[in-house]
Sequence to fold (490 residues):
Amino acid sequence: MRIAIASFTHESNTFAATPTALKDFTIHRGQAMIDHFAPTFHEVAGYIAGAEEYDFDLHATLGANATPSGTVTREAYETITGEILDNLRAAKGQIDGILLALHGAMVAEDYPQGDGETVRRVRELMGPDFPIVVTHDYHGNIPEQLVRDSNALIIYKTTPHIDQRERGLQAADLLVRTIRKEVNPVTAFRKPKVLFNIAFHNTSLPPMQPIMQAAIDLEKEPGILAVSIAAGYQYADVPEMGPSIVVVADGDQELAERGADRIAGLMWAARNELTPNLPNPAEAVRKAMSASATPVTLFDAGDNVGGGAAADSTLILEELLKQKADGWVIAIYDPESVEACAKAGIGATVSLNVGGKADKFHGPTIPITGRVRTLHDGTFEETERRHGGARFGNAGLSAVVEVNRTTPGKGGLLVLNSRRTSPMSIHQLTSVGIVPQQQKILVAKGTVAPRAAYEPVSADIILVDSGGACDMNRDPSEFKRARKDFYEWQ
Fold:
């Protein structure tokens, strides 16, 4: 048995100013794809492990990924999808099925549901009887067409995402059993009329935790092959925006439908718990400064890098300076300022204009004067299971600037990166010589994803209702293509 594997993932924020071009994607092909993913916790690592566990040969096509940002350009989408299809076309008759890792929230220039279009093309090429199992990120906006075009869809059960490898292994098992005709997957699909704000996506806390637990329990029942919940991605203004329930049963459509109704009913029952009430940057900084136990980590939700935001918001930095906070650390994407620090050298005093350069939504550019404390190439290694499944990170050439730090513990540390980097790993800080536990206030540009990295070192975490491309309370009038019947919008 020979199974093809492919991965084409991007979380596309249609409110982000910068489109995602072909040059933004990192692509691994053939054996290089296997070598890259095998040591990670990604679902493709689960596919690879499945080859040995379930006795099949791998046909690796390509793995392509770009940091979340704006809509994927036509050139990028057509080039990468085209290469996957060309590879499958050449292998037709020599492969027995395909495992397809897609994000679920890709928006391409011509296709609001980019992942759905990819699966449609694979199905059209390979024919109606060819087994296709797809894996998705928990933050997918899923169209019914994708569910129809695949034999099964399996979605991460955790956020922060720490079960990707297991979901890949589950997908491999299901595909092999389908090819051997040991099971006959049939799927029921529901899209409850709730927005389910990202503030509540944490699968370890209510209201999502008991819903996800119900899905896990249902998956153990006889006849059920897989139960998945996609919480949705509210930063993609597309017709299918919002949560989805996917239940796969073994040949019993009625059983799948009943299960989908059960989970969808639990999500609808939580509808009155889904309106966030969070502090703005000024309130959050005041609360952090008055905390008796430190460090307090502020999650800059509006500048959620993993959600496609600019990574250069200054809205919280502005408040830290205005309120004269001490012992703070914040990372900002600003290649121009990094270059100035590198030219000045370690120990030099620099005057910089920091952040707020990507667009008009993430705060003003702020003049900063400080001492260059550290220069670093930005690489780090993450050996724990962290959100995203990657083992190695690269923030690009980075600089740490001491701001108003006349004595130890005073002022703050500004970490400047030359690559947009989601704070999935605490080693983004430790690699540049910062000990998080010794600080008073940490700022992480995310909503839920950084928890796996920051919970172990934080006395408290405060989710901040900041503006930006990932504004959690965006007015419904700003959405042009999304459905309008969400409970929270009535």
